[in-house]
Task: inverse folding
């Protein structure tokens, strides 16, 4: 067993040397795309360059990212009904009180991050993650989606982000323009619409991922 | 000014080396629960590194998704592993 470790050593050293050489041979002055982004920022509808790239210039990547997140959830659901791991334990007073206090604040923070994304660091994924954290807290305290909301309404919430994104992306197609090519006049509003729906979908998807099974699935394993 | 430069350099060295040490600990740890806690700590250090690299957008995403939700997902997976 031990000699294999020694065999790995030269490989690791070679990797480290290669990585070090690559980093050291990088040009001092990197010519990125900041200039190109800054030139076009006025047409993007937002003033935060990161949001402009993610939702306007490279909107395609973000759209596919949302699809990947949904596919991940489908992968988890395909494993079938899972026993709930923490349903039986009654939450302690600290977790109970803290959740009551935190969930409204987390929803406010998510809304703020969503709104701030247009001009400062923030955006749909961060806001969605905060929303998902609120969902995880609720699940930890034993809260469950009422059966009425577990079927169709939940599925709508899961895909509404991708659907809204696709709808906005396809909007310029009849006018003979390209997919995801927003009119600069409405770009800000369109991005806000996409991000609002995406936040809901990302938050719900992350919380349901934590739950681990389709809430509409009744049969216990 | 000199003191500030020294301070920021030593802070960068601390989080950089801390990141490497935490990464090693996560991989070498045989207790899965401990490894998950170390992974969450790794995510928080990573977020600090992004802040130091002047990338607050990635820092926010890393803190919320990398450290927070991934940690919760791993914990849930571990709880299910123990049931079987």
Result:
């Amino acid at each position: 067993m031990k000699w294999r470790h020694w065999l790995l050593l030269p490989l690791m050293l070679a990797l480290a040397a290669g990585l070090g050489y690559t980093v050291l041979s990088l040009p001092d002055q990197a010519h990125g795309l900041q200039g190109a982004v800054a030139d076009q920022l006025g047409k993007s509808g937002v003033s935060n360059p990161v949001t402009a790239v993610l939702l306007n210039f490279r909107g395609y990547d973000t759209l596919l990212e949302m699809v990947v997140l949904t596919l991940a959830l489908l992968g988890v659901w395909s494993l079938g009904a899972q026993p709930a791991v923490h349903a039986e334990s009654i939450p302690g007073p600290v977790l109970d009180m803290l959740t009551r206090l935190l969930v409204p604040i987390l929803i406010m923070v998510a809304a703020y991050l969503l709104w701030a994304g247009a001009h400062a660091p923030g955006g749909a994924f961060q806001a969605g993650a905060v929303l998902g954290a609120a969902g995880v807290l609720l699940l930890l305290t034993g809260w469950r989606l009422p059966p009425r909301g577990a079927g169709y309404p939940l599925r709508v919430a899961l895909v509404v982000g991708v659907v809204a994104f696709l709808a906005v992306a396809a909007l310029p197609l009849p006018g003979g323009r390209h997919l995801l090519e927003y009119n600069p006049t409405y770009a800000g509003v369109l991005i806000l619409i996409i991000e609002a729906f995406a936040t809901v979908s990302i938050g719900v998807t992350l919380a349901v991922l934590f739950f681990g099974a389709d809430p509409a699935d009744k049969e216990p394993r | 000014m000199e003191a500030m430069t020294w301070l920021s350099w030593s802070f960068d060295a601390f989080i950089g080396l801390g990141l490497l040490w935490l990464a090693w600990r996560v991989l070498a740890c045989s207790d899965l629960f401990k490894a998950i806690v170390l992974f969450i700590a790794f995510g928080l250090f990573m977020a600090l590194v992004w802040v130091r690299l002047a990338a607050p957008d990635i820092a926010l995403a890393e803190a919320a998704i990398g450290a927070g939700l991934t940690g919760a997902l791993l914990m849930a997976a571990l709880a299910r592993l123990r049931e079987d």
